[in-house]
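Board notes (copied after class):
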Amino acid sequence: MKFEKFPYKDLYPFESHYCNVGGYKMHYVDEGQGPLVILVHGNPTWSFYYREVIKKLRTQFRVIAPDHIGCGLSEHPYGRHFKAADRVTHLQNLVDSLGLKSFSLIMHDWGGSIGTTLAVRNLERIDRLIYLNTTLTETESLPWFIKISSKPFIGKFLTKTTKTFLRLTTNVGAATKLPKRVKKGYFFPYRTAKDRSFVWDFVHDIPFNMDHPTYSGMMEISRGVPELSKNQFK
């Protein structure tokens, strides 16, 4: 399933593009010309989060802003569950399918770890890395609400059964009060519990201990960061 018509085009006035990644349709925005910047969103947002950044950057850069599978206007394959490793593979598939040879990354939230893993695997392609409110390996420093939301029962209630997690993001997570239409824009892809199952997947995938299946991926980031620091960014 994918959403083909977003009702608030004045807020998100971009042409939609789709790419097949791992058998799923990934939606992305591709605007402007010039040096390439890829915007990687986190949870529970989508490329809508970057709408003003896209408008600003497209005057001087080519800007690509994808939606993770299950998020935004990308395909929502109900019944499937994705981990960080899957997200990295999807993003790598997009980069390779579009033949992107050199790019910078702007990353927010989960986009930080996903984008950084992509970067350490593609050192020769990376120009610049820009981080927005994210962690890479410091999961112990995450807010208490995130830790509670990762627990199986209460976490599903907060992130999937109800819109509590979404509402917290657009209220407490905003520096200024958001207009109702903007909130509806954020909520649009996650209107049903089925759609919010992908929001839950992200939170449940945070590796708070060594036994977690995503812990090894977090360690890959830890090992790769020193290599990034050696990279001769252009």
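Comment from the instructor: The chain has one domain: 16-230. Strands lie at 16-21, 24-31, 36-40, 62-66, 103-108, 126-132.
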